[in-house]
Amino acid sequence: MTSIDMGVDGAGKATGIDLEELLATRLLVQGNSGSGKSHLLRRLLEGSAGKVQQIIIDPEGDFVSLCDAFDHIAIDAADHSLPDIARLATRIRAHRASVVLNLEGLEMEGQMRCAATFLGALFEAPRELWYPALVVVDEAQVFAPSAAGEVADDARRASLGAMTNLMCRGRKRGLAGVIATQRLAKLAKNVAAEASNFLMGRTFLDIDMLRAADLLGMERRQAEVIRDLQRGEFLALGPALCRRPVSIRIGAVTTEAKGGGPSLLPLPTAAAGDMRDLLFAAAPVEPMPAIVAPPPPPSADELIQAMGAPAPVPDLPVLGAAEQEAAVSAAIADIARDADPQAPAAVLYQDLLLRCRMRGVTVTLDMAGFRRRLAFARAGIEDEAEWTDAITLAASLPEEMLPPFLALACAAREQADCPTDPELAALYGTTSMGRAKRMLAHIEEKGLVVVRTDLSGKRSISLPHLGWTTGAAVADPDKPAPPPRMSSREARALASRR
Fold this sequence. Notes:
Layout (H helix, E strand, L loop, with lengths): L2 E7 L4 E5 H7 L1 E4 L6 H12 L4 E6 L7 H4 L3 E4 L5 H14 L3 E4 L5 H16 L9 E5 L2 H4 L9 H17 L5 E7 L7 H4 L4 E4 L5 H10 L8 H4 L5 E6 L3 E9 L21 H8 L20 H8 L13 H18 L6 H14 L8 H13 L8 H6 L8 H12 L7 H8 L4 H13 L4 E4 L4 E6 L4 E2 L3 E2 L13 H10 L1
Parallel strand pairs: 3-8, 3-9, 4-6, 4-7, 5-6, 7-8
Antiparallel strand pairs: 1-2, 1-11, 9-10, 10-11, 12-13, 13-14, 13-15
InterPro entries: ATPase_Atu1862_pred, HerA-like, HerA_central, P-loop_NTPase
GO molecular function, one term: helicase activity
Organism: Sphingoaurantiacus capsulatus
């Protein structure tokens, strides 16, 4: 058992957190402002540093000081775009780096969007990157509010969904959520209910005391104890802490927040009259800059002699309409082959414009036309005229389902093997096999395809409107094949031996 020393209980006995159990059961910390939540989180992070990967979402920039004492990397979210944040999250999981995501420079809505993108990328990382990690979220009520606020609904839903995934489904992906909040009433119930370990600090409102008492398994008449807790004192309960509520006083830490706590300072000793003169003193008069007459402008002949004859700029080569169309088609084919399938269409469209400018080609294709031609290129279709019937069928599908449907049509027309789930997921712009299967089920519900899976696990897909059918192939090559079926003769022989 790997135990992290957190402090002492009421009898002066050292008390800690079982780190391995914490990774499996998650932790919720609650307490009013000034109750010592950040101090508690810092004690936990310092004690577990070097033993487990730590990923800290820091809305106030309080935990950046950990980077000076440990090997943590500070990421200032204000300096990066949302796609950069998503890429950084994937690399963090791949390299198992401990980081502090500093959201201090963003407004609340920006903090929610950034946290949603970051947590979503951590959650969607490939299976081979599911290493154990503590994901600490301070001020969790900002990212998982119990009610709508002044931020946009899409930002609130994205942030709340990411926090729910972290606390509800993160354990299987190695993500152990540790969240801290000022008030349980402000935190979404679906997020708070998934924690199995609790550290409840001082709070004064009745609704928060009653909820804290319920989570600790205490009777409601005992809830007044929570109001009497001192700063840095918490009631603990959970499989990683203790089986019965115990009071813990959190120990000292070696690092400090950049701002420190409030403290008294001596007031200035100036007399009231002098202070009034200081406050209402006239603004200093800045000296006027000396006026210097500008030199007379040079004559036209002098300017021409000074500039010299400019070197002529050669004209761009003039390409015919067919050559320009071929260049655009080649650029779209290169993007379909090389670009990340999950990259936004707007980013890929800018890539097309840049590639065409480098070749001296003017692009007249709009965004809608680009998405359409990119879908054809990803499906392997070169001549749209030959696929009029399949394109007509696809008109009832959402735009993002066009590439996988056309790929199915190509395979069915050529009677090639049915595309696998990973191939369909890549065309759909995701790494989730579940999303790919739901997409295929949606197309089948539309009546555009018929999916058949034989007893050996091989799948074939037909397009009944066109009379095309793919060859049978295993849907998921990574899934182990089922054992071979036993013939009736072998079954009778085995039964006779028994």
